[in-house]
C-alpha cells in the first residue's frame, strides 16, 4: 500500500512572509514536516508542492522530493487546498506512481510528531473511514452547547436552542476544532467524493501541548518558546 506524504508550501505568504523557509529554533519550518514524515515509518514518499524555486531548493536540501513546481494558478491567496492535492496526485499518477493513502503535512504545524502520522494511518486502516483528521478538544466552556450569542434585538441567548437546558459546563457536549496536525485520507476519497474528508471522517485527538498552527508573528513567537522548552515528543 503506497502512502504519500504531501507538504504544501507556496511562496506568497502574507501573514508571515517567507515563513516556510524561515528558521524556527535553528531549522527551516519545512524541516519539521520532513522529519516527522521520515520518523513515522509509514510514509513511502514525501513530496513538496510549491510554486517557489527558493522553497523547492530548501525542500530538496532537507530530503523532500520536488518532482514539479505548482502552477501559479494554484498558488494564490485564495486557492483551496483540494485542487492543490489533486494536482500533485495527478502528476504522480502520470509518472506511474499511485498513492493509496495521502497524508497532508502542512508546514505550519511544527509540533507534529512521527507518532501523530503513524496513528492517523493506523486509524484510517483500522476503521475503514474515508479520512482521519487531527483535532483539539475545546474546553467545555467553549462548547456550542454552553456558549452564548447576541441576537438581532441585542439579547444574550444560547448559541444553540438546546443550550437553554445546559446550566453546568460539565453537561455540555465535547466539541472539537481541526488543528492542522494531520489530514489523512484515501485516494478514493479524493477522487470519488472530491473531498479530503468524505462522508466518514474520524477524529484523532491531539493534546493542547502538541497543537500549534503558525499563521502570524505571535504564533511564531509562541512556537519558538515551546520549541525552546522541549516542544512535542515522539
| CATH-assigned fold name of the largest domain | Spore Coat Polysaccharide Biosynthesis Protein SpsA, Chain A
* Total discrete domains: 2
Strand content: 15-25%
**Separation of termini?**
24 Å
Folded structure, characterized:
The relative contact order is 0.18. The strands form three sheets. A six-stranded mixed beta sheet has the order 4-1-5-9-6-10. A two-stranded antiparallel ribbon has the order 2-3. The two termini are 24 Å apart. 29% of the residues lie in helices and 21% in strands. The chain contains six helices and ten strands, in the order βββαβααβαββββαβα. It has 234 residues and is an alpha/beta fold.
List key phrases describing it.
single chain; 234 residues; alpha/beta; Spore Coat Polysaccharide Biosynthesis Protein SpsA, Chain A; 2 domains; 6-stranded mixed sheet; 6 helices; 29% helix
Question: What can be said about this structure in brief?
Answer:
The protein is an alpha/beta fold and 234 residues long. It contains 6 helices and 10 strands; from the N terminus they run E-E-E-H-E-H-H-E-H-E-E-E-E-H-E-H.
Strand-helix topology:
Blueprint: E1 3-8, E2 23-24, E3 27-28, H1 29-40, E4 45-49, H2 53-61, H3 81-94, E5 101-104, H4 114-127, E6 131-137, E7 148-150, E8 156-158, E9 176-186, H5 187-193, E10 201-205, H6 217-228
Parallel strand pairs: 1-4, 1-5, 6-10
Antiparallel strand pairs: 2-3, 5-9, 6-9, 7-8
